[in-house]
Amino acid sequence: MEPARSLSRTLAERQSELLKVIRARGEVRVAEMPEMFSVSEETVRRDLRWLEAQQMIQRSYGVARAVESGLFETRLEDRAASHLAEKERIAAAAVTRLGEAQTLYIDEGFNPQLVAKRLPLDRALTVVTPSLPTALLMAQRPNVRVIILGGRVRSHTLGVVDETASQMLSALTVDVAIMGANAVSVDRGMSTPDPAVAVIKRAAMRAAIRRIFIGAHTKFGLASFVRFADVSEFEVLITGVEFPATRANAFRAVGTALLRV
Predict the structure, then answer these.
(1) Burial class (CB in 10 A: 0-12, 13-18, 19+), 77
(2) What is the total count of domains within the chain?
């Protein structure tokens, strides 16, 4: 029995190291991995299948990407480097759906920052945000009044969390909330790895008259640690055409408006 236990440990160690590398880099091309770990292509494929079954990674188009969990969250710079064209399209589509909104909540994260950059220059707006980068960007516009939430700043996203931020939101009403999430599921709704972030997102949902979700196709079909909303609470979910139409139909089947751009 000893050889079997030794083999099991070797397998677990290799899979753990593979996951560590993918998380450190955000995404890794599958073709690089056999040489990187001195194993065969079939061994790499087996390890990746196992990691994907545990919802630790996603695979698509020859690339393995890290999936966020209660213990792991990607860095803001990693998010900025991946699927940029898709995220730009999503941001542009979100701006077209603002209507006559004068007060906006813009969530933390990279995709909401892209929405902020595209806000019209010729109208007065009030923007409420927990995001330091978004607040700095909006503060440069003379026709935008910026309200930044107070509290603890998270190093991964430069977003603000904790009780002070939640209390501020409880006193506000905004026309539209532009919301992100780490994971989106028909059954498990919108979720995030950090309970403190979930508190702020729930408060933002309560403060908003209308709610628009924006997120790349890689967010869908996953569940993270803490649920903060159901998909039915949003006016529309906006993602890229990279999200397969067959999978989008599962959201539409439960009455959720989903737009692929």
Answers:
(1) exposed
(2) 2
Whether residue 108 is found in the same domain as residue 8: no
CA 217, CA 129: separation in Å to the nearest integer? 24
Whether residue 190 sits in one domain with residue 83 = yes
pLDDT per residue as tens digits for the range 34-91: 888 888 888 888 899 999 888 788 887 788 887 765 556 666 666 665 789 999 999 9
Q: What confidence tens digit (pLDDT) does each residue in 163-182 have?
A: 999 999 999 999 999 999 99
Helix pair 163-170, 195-207: axis angle to 10 deg? 10
Residues with Cβ within 8 Å of residue 184, at least 6 apart in sequence: 190, 191, 213, 215, 219, 220, 221, 222, 231, 237
Give residues with Cβ within 8 angstroms of 120, minimum separation 6. 95
**Full domain range(s) for residue 230:** 77-260
Give the C-alpha separation, 193 to 74, whole Å: 10
Contact indicator for 258, 231 with CB cutoff of 8 Å:
no
* Residue 108 DSSP class: S
- Counted residue by residue, the chain has a size of 261
